[in-house]
Structures are given as C-alpha cells and as structure tokens.
Amino acid sequence: MAASAARQLEWAPRALQAYIDSLAHIADENPRTAGLVRERVEHALDLILEHPGIGVPTARRGERRFPIANTGHVIVYRVTQAAVRVHVWYRARQNVHGPMG
To answer: What is the Cα–Cα distance from 39 to 36, expressed in whole angstroms?
Structure first.
C-alpha cells in the first residue's frame, strides 16, 4: 500500500493539453458542467492512483484504458514504480443522432 501511495500523477504534454482544451470547450457552453467534469476526472485519477490495475489493458503492453464516468472521455495511462502517467485523453464516440434506420 505504501508503494501505491507514493506514486505521483504525471501527464504527457499532449494529453494534458487535450484535457485543458476539452475543459475550455465545455466551459464555453456550460461552466458548471466543466466543473463537474474536472471533479469526475480528479476522482477517477485518485482511484487509479490507489488501484492502478483498475483500467482495461490495451493492445500496447503496459497501457490501460479507463473511461471517466459520466463525461464521455477516456484516458490511457501507464503505471511505473514511481508514477501513473496519462498518455492520452480523448472523447469517446457517441451516437448523438440515434440509430440509423
């Protein structure tokens, strides 16, 4: 437990910029929603720091994917002895127009 508590959170520069850009875009439409997204991301990252194996393994060795609940966003991260490093932040696809038919 002490080892996981000592892990630091790191962001790859491109992932951090994508996250910041997403929050800015959401805030342009609804500042309250942007605050909720930020809170949900922080909560998810806290969970990952406590339980680094919580994400789903990806095709790349050592990477895990974790969808951020109720945000429509996903992070891809890698765990080392010293850190959890977020490599990718992206918007999950959603069928916003309903089923084709």
So the answer is: 5
Q: What is the pLDDT of residue 19?
A: 97
Q: What is the mean pLDDT of the chain?
A: 88
pTM of the model: 0.82
Cβ–Cβ < 8 Å for 71, 26: no
| Size of the chain in residues | 101
54 DSSP 8-state letter:
G
How many other CB atoms are there within 10 angstroms of residue 13's CB atom? 7
d(CA 41, CA 19): 10
Q: pLDDT (tens digit, 9 = 90+) per residue, 5-20?
A: 578 999 999 999 999 9
7 contact partners, CB below 8 Å, separation of at least 6: 49, 52, 79, 81, 82, 83, 84
What is the rounded radius of gyration, in angstroms, for the C-alpha atoms of the chain? Answer: 15
Q: Is there a contact between 86 and 77 (Cβ–Cβ < 8 Å)?
A: yes
